[in-house]
């Protein structure tokens, strides 16, 4: 429930109270999955933390989470939509952290990964998140 709520809040304009709810929900989800989930569950919650921290301007922690989950998802066979999310969120975190070159590279990887998503519905879901990522300089 916390995971779904944080993702739900992440894709629209929020009030300060909703920002706090999103942050709390993301951390609750991460705590939950660290206690009872698989490594995949934990990495998905790390992905969520990276996105939420990027959205809130917490660049250093966003990038730390993003690099951890990117290392995981790019080192194994990953579904096309999840690989696209990996690059999209890494780009967002790099932007929030002011890591200009990492942002540029991840943004380009995200664009390519989006094109590779076979299912139109999956692509549309990832695009909602990608639309919030600033363009590289």
Q: Write down the domain tally.
A: 1
Shape annotation: globular
Query: Average pLDDT value?
Result: 98
Strand-and-helix sequence, N→C? Answer: HHHHHHH
**N-end to C-end Cα span:** 37 Å
Major sheet description: none
- Percent range of helical residues: over 70%
Q: Give the helix tally.
A: 7
Q: How many strands appear in the DSSP assignment?
A: 0
Gyration radius, in Å: 14 Å
Indicate the structural class.
mainly alpha
Beta-sheet strand percentage? Answer: under 5%
Low-confidence stretches: none
Offer a few descriptive terms.
single chain; 137 residues; mainly alpha; 79% helix; globular
Tell me what the structure shows:
There is one protein chain. Helix content is 79%, strand content 0%. With 137 residues, it is mostly helical. The protein has one domain. Helix 1 (2-10) packs antiparallel against helix 2 (16-36) and helix 5 (80-97) packs antiparallel against helix 6. The radius of gyration is 14 Å and the shape is globular. The protein starts with a helix and ends in a 7-residue tail after the last helix.
